[in-house]
Fold:
Amino acid sequence: MRTDNHDHSHQAVPSDVALRVKALESLLVEKGLVDPAALDALIDSYEHKIGPRNGARVVARAWVDPAYQKRLLTDATAAIGELGYTGGQGEHMIVVANGPKLHNLVVCTLCSCYPWPVLGLPPVWYKSAPYRSRAVIDPRGVLREFGLELPEDVEIRVWDSTAEVRYLVLPERPAGSEKLREEELAALVTRDAMVGVAKVELAPTGG
Amino acid sequence: MNGVHDMGGMHGMGPIQYEKNEPVFPEAWEARVFALNRAVRAWGKWTGDASRHAVELIPAPDYLRMSYYEQRLHALIELMVKHGLVTPAEVESGQPVPDSHKATPALAASDVPGMIAKGRPATREVQVPARFRVGQQVRARNLHPTGHTRLPRYVRGKPGTIYLDHGVHVFPDSSAHALGENPQHLYSVRFAAQDLWGDQASARTAVYLDLWDDYLEHA
Structure:
């Protein structure tokens, strides 16, 4: 797995595509097709309000509240809605629970389907060909690339998001976290663990 | 369509490019493309399935070369031209044609929180009989439609088991082409990895896909 900065060098001069987007936006504003304030509001929502901290709160609640966990695993859309997370690209939610002998992994081989209300917008690797192509044929190899080596006796379930149903992984609660409060637990839960490419650690690493 | 977007099971796509602490939008223009797509969709001229199909129609070499938001920009322009929201000349010049009518945006800033919270459910409250039941053995049909489909090549012709019945959902193969919603039962179907990839696959691995009635036949 490479972690170097690829192709995101910030140019001093706007790129060709940046200029094309600017021209398109000004055309659409001029024609009254879009309101630039609505564009700003959309961007602000997904940059600052809707992201993996939402999903982390769902996971932490499920860890401390067995009745909530049960609701989450039987009617995820409603249980997630209880915490106020609803809507676009998460209208129909399923939560799948990891255990000592079961690991779940989520992918969208055909495009980029992802549970926005609880995880926000997907990272580049989730939307890219290497992950989309191999998650279904070699999940163990993909997990190894993320630094996660699973014992051979662990069952792996890969969820290919081919419809409007969106999947969230309920990771295992880490050993040694028994005394932590719900908010402290939520702080440990990473996006990667909720996609199923990592476990939750007491000292979190990565995204 | 048997496009390059349908890449489940392919080799040769290289290592996973993981970036720590990746921003939501690495480039500012990507944020604008994201928002433009959502705001123009509010006009209701096309479905989300049609948006996905517009991305699939990008010729394969370009699809693989383009970044995610370059693909979305390309698809958005194609759809806006197709549905008469803009002309190719306007896109080229960046200027509205003279004397063109100025519309009122379909999405105002104050509508955004409500639009996000509401979403666009794909379920439909219609009585459609389920052709299969949970636990039943099925086979994914060997279909090769030239239009939009959510039946990936890697499961076509393969045996599976109905794991969940998600209820009645809009059928993307017709919705993408403005041919109606054709709502029908959607199932989570379990495919054993060895049935998909052969004996070298692990017996303890399975892939679950959401597949509609029209994609399935009795085993």
